[in-house]
Amino acid sequence: MLRKIFGSSKKQPVDIDIDKEKLPRHIAVIMDGNGRWAKGQGLLRTAGHAAGVKTLKRILISADDMGIEALTVYAFSTENWKRPKAEVDFLLSLFSEYLAKELAEMHERGAQVKFIGDRTGFSEKLQQEMARAESLTENNTGIRFTIAANYGGRDEILRAAKLLAKDTNADIDSLTEADFEKYLDTFGAPPVDLVIRTSGEMRLSNFLLWQAAYAEFWYTNTPWPDFNEREFIEAIKEFAARNRRFGGV
Ligand code: IPE
Ligand code: IPE
Ligand code: MG
After folding, report:
1. Which residue, of 26, 49, 89, 207, has the fewest CB within 10 Å?
2. Residue 162 to residues 116, 155, 157, 168, 194: CA-CA distances in angstroms?
3. How many structural domains is the chain composed of?
């Protein structure tokens, strides 16, 4: 049976009735629908983002308790700069606040915190906070928790191509896909097995274009602030029951 798996900063291994080998190693989540959720409650869009942070906390704990190796969440895309300045500013301040409030507990859990995306788009201060979170947790051996911020899959691949072009040690003619992955922001993470998107949209929106090449896709109409452990487990159970062929028969 499922045990209650939220609210604690201590690891509580959870039995979700799935063979360990059938669990996704790496889950990526497009946390969508904060704005519509807020509108539905008669609140400002920003209130939706604040509520979304609470969901994120619960889902991270749940993933860790289930023994998921890596969780990557889409927090801010390279396209999200198109939003009104007040909303962008609110989201950026939420990153700082989130790190200030949650970093100690994530560290205590043994999580490795990482950021992907072009962080040069952020203020010096935020970049320092991100670097601090990464260096504090880099030797941890628990869940690899990656926040995609100013992230775009195309931007990441283009930046990787530029790094490769400048790498005088690279042997272009014999370069393999595995070699190319070393230049991506996600280097070292297991392949993405499952992409979850909330709030009913069925698109990738420039998320992990390279990494999700063979991921299973699962979506729900539930907006991110209302997403919970029960649905998260439902997604994982459905993943475990799917037949992945990777081009074979
Ligand atoms: C996702 O929720 C959060 C971010 C993109 C930062 P949205 O803000 O996209 O919410 P909707 O899709 O407008 O409802
Ligand atoms: C994708 O959501 C980005 C994040 C969740 C951070 P959007 O709400 O920005 O995506 P579109 O514009 O609906 O495709
Ligand atoms: Mg959206």
Report:
1. 89
2. 16, 11, 9, 12, 28
3. 1
Any domain includes 161 = yes
The protein residue with its alpha carbon nearest to ligand 2, atom 14, reads: 205
Looking at residue 16, its pLDDT comes to: 77
Q: Is residue 246 part of a domain?
A: no
Going by pLDDT thresholds of 50, 70 and 90, the confidence category of residue 29 is: very high
Indicate left, alpha or beta for 197 from its phi (over 0: left) and psi (-120 to 50: alpha): beta
Pocket test for ligand 1, best of 29, 31, 32, 80 (most atoms within 8 A of CB): 32
Show the domain range for 59.
2-8+25-239
Under DSSP, is residue 74 helix (H, G, I), strand (E, B) or coil?
strand
Condensed to tens digits (0 to 9), the pLDDT of residues 72-104 reads 999 999 999 999 999 999 999 999 999 999 999
